[in-house]
Design brief:
The chain is an all-alpha fold and 334 residues long. It is built from 17 helices and 3 strands. The protein has a 3-stranded antiparallel sheet with strand order 1-3-2. A hairpin with a 4-residue loop joins strand 2 and strand 3. Helix 3 runs antiparallel to helix 9 and helix 14 runs antiparallel to helix 16.
Length: 334
């Protein structure tokens, strides 16, 4: 969603946010609104799901894909999905196996199943149109409170509070004076996010996307670019002398985990041209018929134990990301 410069210019007008916290300075909040919106108008990434002619479905697919996955990995898969399934009805007519296969290497492939189920529900309940109301979005399969709010805001410019990691970090620094937000979302952070929101729908939508972009590009977790920040002189964290964080962020472990093994098994199944015997996935061999040698090599070189691979395969079958027939041959779901 790329808001027009006119939207940013409108944010120069005073608003009446109706703050509930007397510690918040309304004049400072208005400056934050204005400066961050104007920064966004000049610096926002040109992403297809932000384009003026975006569809709600395009926004919805991007929100599913962007969960725990960076933009650079999402872009090619998003474009592929839009070529294949430009509407919810198009995806609903595809198989779940098609959805999982085209999810590629985005990770967390259950998102593909949930997005497919949501497309079916949109066709059945809403005539093939993504609903605009938060409660209707929340009722769709696989749509939680964050995703429902994000679609409502970024597709329909409704006034909903969107709270992702980037937004929380900007709020923590600029307003609360902390280096990082709490390890998990707190009620205080949620109240602050509500209190910072402009009352006007369009201004609120612009605020959400502008703060999110600022956190992604400037107010980053490890090396914030304070020298180019549009609100440097209003930042409570900078004013406090940039105090250290109360904890050290740790990235998720990947090597040797079940997630890595599951991903390697899924790669084999996505690229297979025929059903794969269970035993070939538990004891991988590069010359397995119907399998791309490269994907099987990746699975074999994990050096995962047979017990781990069997556990992961059974988990994929339980999650309906893979299907095993009565001859113990495994494929993607039909």
């Amino acid at each position: 969603m790329k808001f027009s410069n006119a939207s940013a210019e409108r944010s120069n007008q005073p608003t009446s946010p109706g703050y509930r916290d007397t510690d918040l300075d309304p004049e400072k909040i208005q400056r934050l609104h204005r400066r961050i919106a104007n920064w966004f108008a000049e610096n926002a990434r040109d992403l297809p799901w932000r384009a003026p002619d975006r569809t709600p479905w395009q926004v919805m697919v991007s929100e599913f894909m962007l969960q725990q996955t960076p933009v650079v990995r999402v872009l090619p898969q998003w474009r592929r999905w839009m070529d294949l399934w430009p509407t919810p009805e198009d995806l609903a007519q595809a198989t779940t196996g098609d959805a999982v296969r085209e999810w590629g290497r985005l990770g967390y492939p259950r998102r593909a199943l949930r997005l497919h189920a949501a497309a079916v529900a949109i066709v059945e309940r809403h005539g093939g149109e993504v609903p605009s109301e938060y409660e209707d979005l929340l009722a769709l399969p696989g749509v939680g409170s964050y995703t429902a709010a994000a679609i409502s805001v970024f597709a329909f410019e409704k006034r909903q509070t969107v709270i992702d990691t980037n937004i929380r970090r900007v709020h923590a620094r600029a307003v609360s004076g902390k280096a990082l937000p709490a390890k998990s979302l707190t009620s205080a952070e949620t109240r602050l996010a509500h209190e910072l929101m402009p009352e006007d729908d369009e201004a609120a939508a612009l605020w959400n996307i502008s703060v999110m972009e600022l956190g992604a590009l400037v107010c980053t977790a490890k090396s914030p670019k304070c020298d180019v920040c549009p609100v440097l002189d209003d930042c409570a964290w900078v004013a406090a002398g940039r105090p250290e964080a109360e904890y050290v962020p740790r990235g998720q472990t990947w090597k040797g985990t079940d997630r890595q093994a599951r991903g390697a098994i899924m790669a084999v199944l996505r690229e297979a041209t025929k059903p794969i015997p269970r035993e070939a996935l538990i004891v991988p061999h590069d010359d397995t018929p119907g399998v791309e040698p490269e994907s099987m090599t990746r699975l074999r070189t994990l050096e995962a134990s047979h017990e781990q691979l069997e556990r992961c395969l059974d988990g994929l079958i339980r999650d309906e990301l893979a299907f095993e027939d009565d001859q113990n041959r495994v494929t993607l779901p039909g």
